[in-house]
Prior knowledge:
Elements: H1 2-26, E1 38-39, H2 41-49, E2 55-60, H3 63-67, E3 75-77, H4 79-82, H5 99-108, E4 116-121, H6 126-135, E5 141-144, H7 147-153
Amino acid sequence: MKRKAYAVCILALVFSFILTGAVFAAGKYKGYARGEIFITAQEVNRLLEAKDPKLVIIAVASKVEYYSGHIPGSFHLWRPDYEADPKTQGGVTDNILPPEGYTKLMQGLGVDPDSKVVVYDHKYDATRLWWAFYYYGKTDVRILDGGIKAWKNAGYPTDLVAAGKASKQGT
């Protein structure tokens, strides 16, 4: 009898773990533990249509990729723009800029503490820029789920001309 009660308790415990996991996974975007970092093409389009003054969109792309079609109003950045000079890093390449340089770069794009930043890419670079923002303390940054491909597949327009200067300097 004790053995049967023990087995029932174990089964109840396992079932409750499974149920709890399913409930938590259901509340996350596509089941990701940090799904809140993603934004859909439809959500970005709504922000653009609303002309949200706090919105800053950054295309992390090579010049060829950027000028072959980008989200209207998005600013262009590529790896060398936000990487530290290897001479200042003991010869190590691919490190991000130090805080002062990174802050100045982002302020030039109009990013400030209240900005809603969306980063996107053509391959895999948006996550690196997202990480740099997060590392330096700006956590209200979202990654366009699916990148430029998702934007184009949703039928939204692209520009071939650069966005120009930020309408305001970030703080």
